[in-house]
């Protein structure tokens, strides 16, 4: 019996593929590689580049950025067309599954080590399993949940990142008005993502239209704007970058609380994705927690919910491998 699982975390920016060997209920990493998604025309092509001639796999599972309906991915932020049947044929006919990327991320969270998690708000200690909300800002915005059942956790995928952005306060209302002039639909992803942080910064600049410092303009023009804005804010080098990240952080906290209330996530909320670990010093300043708790009569309830940041960039890959292991066990 082939006991090796091919796992994948497929994103608009990067594609992370890995092989894991199943030893009972445990998984041992064999090897992995991170590719630029834009380097390939399809997931099948990426798998062909990763797999060696003598690799023998027993199951494959891939987390993809968008809903998966009837085995077909309706991905956002990536141009690939992906279907389970096509990928299954390309990798030798082994059992294959496409899942939402936040769904597989959720499956990976229970296996994170203590050193791979940063606690922003401890909340109330729980005895036994409890629902967990998962939100991840990166190239886009993903949302999901881990729901407790008699048979263990079940991950529930969602596309909440594409729900209507709900502004809080006059400044965020002005931000919504600014974005409505540019986009047909202003979703949370338009503000809670890498491009979203850039959108917020552009809004802040219109409210304070002093010339950009030459160094900042040059970096935004030639590098990833969100990374530049975040780094400049954390270093305190530019006041408008600081304010943009303050708005971003407040919106992140508010939407994390929305998700936590929808799933009654007494097991807490995990911030995943690529942005949260990079702006962790800013998140620890308290603005996110203040926005998270600002829910009127439900404040005392939310105070009991923990808020944690996943620091493991491979959580989604691990979750995909865990889902692949479940497929093999069935």
Write structural notes for this entry:
- This protein is an alpha/beta fold and 330 residues long.
- The chain folds into two domains: 4-107 and 314-329, Nucleotidyltransferase, domain 5 (2-Layer Sandwich); 113-311, 3-Layer(aba) Sandwich (Hexokinase, domain 1).
- The chain is 39% helix and 24% strand.
- The strands form three sheets. The protein has a six-stranded mixed beta sheet with strand order 9-14-13-10-11-12, with helices on both faces.
- It is globular, with a radius of gyration of 20 Å.
- 45% of the residues are buried.
- The model has no long low-confidence stretch (mean pLDDT 94).
What is the structure about, briefly put?
This protein is 39% helix and 24% strand. By secondary structure, it is of the alpha/beta class.
Domain unit count: 2
Trace the largest sheet across and list its strands: 9-14-13-10-11-12
How far from one another are the termini? 14 Å
Biggest β-sheet description: 6 strands, mixed
The proportion of residues forming helix, as a percent range, comes to 25-40%
Structural class determined from secondary elements:
alpha/beta
- What is the C-alpha radius of gyration, as a whole number of Å? 20 Å
Q: What is the element layout, followed by pairings?
A:
Elements: E1 4-10, E2 14-23, E3 26-36, H1 43-50, E4 59-64, E5 68-69, E6 72-73, E7 82-83, H2 84-90, E8 96-100, H3 101-108, E9 117-121, E10 132-137, E11 141-149, E12 152-158, H4 169-180, H5 194-207, H6 214-222, H7 225-235, H8 239-263, E13 269-272, H9 275-278, H10 280-283, H11 287-293, H12 299-302, E14 307-310, H13 315-329
Parallel strand pairs: 1-4, 4-8, 10-13, 13-14
Antiparallel strand pairs: 1-2, 2-3, 5-6, 6-7, 9-14, 10-11, 11-12
């Amino acid at each position: 019996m082939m006991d090796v699982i091919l796992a994948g975390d497929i994103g608009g920016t990067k594609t992370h593929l890995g092989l894991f060997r199943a030893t009972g209920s445990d998984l041992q990493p064999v090897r992995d590689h991170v590719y630029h998604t834009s380097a390939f025309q399809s997931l099948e092509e990426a798998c062909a580049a990763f797999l060696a001639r003598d690799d023998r796999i027993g199951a494959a599972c891939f987390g993809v950025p968008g809903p998966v309906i009837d085995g077909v991915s309706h991905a956002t932020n990536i141009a690939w067309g992906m279907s389970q049947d096509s990928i299954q044929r390309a990798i030798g006919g082994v059992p294959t599954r496409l899942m939402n990327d936040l769904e597989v991320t959720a499956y990976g969270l229970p296996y994170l080590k203590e050193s791979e998690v940063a606690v922003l708000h401890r909340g109330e200690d729980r005895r036994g399993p409890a629902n967990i909300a998962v939100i991840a800002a990166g190239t886009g915005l993903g949302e999901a949940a881990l729901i407790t059942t008699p048979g263990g956790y079940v991950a529930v995928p969602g596309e909440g990142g594409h729900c209507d952005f709900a502004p809080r306060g006059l400044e965020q209302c002005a931000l919504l008005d600014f974005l409505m002039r540019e986009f047909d639909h202003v979703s949370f992803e338009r503000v809670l993502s890498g491009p979203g942080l850039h959108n917020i910064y552009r809004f802040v600049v219109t409210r304070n239209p002093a010339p950009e410092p030459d160094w900042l303009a040059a970096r935004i023009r030639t590098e990833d704007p969100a990374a530049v804005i975040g780094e400049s804010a954390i270093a305190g080098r530019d006041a408008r970058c600081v304010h943009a990240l303050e708005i971003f952080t407040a919106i992140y906290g508010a939407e994390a609380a929305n998700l936590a209330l929808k799933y009654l996530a007494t097991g807490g909320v995990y911030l995943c994705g690529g942005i949260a670990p990079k702006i962790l010093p800013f998140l620890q300043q308290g603005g996110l927690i203040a926005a998270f708790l600002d829910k009127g009569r439900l404040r005392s309830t939310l105070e009991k919910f923990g808020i944690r940041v996943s620091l493991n960039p491979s959580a989604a890959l691990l979750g995909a491998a865990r889902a692949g292991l479940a497929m093999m066990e069935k």
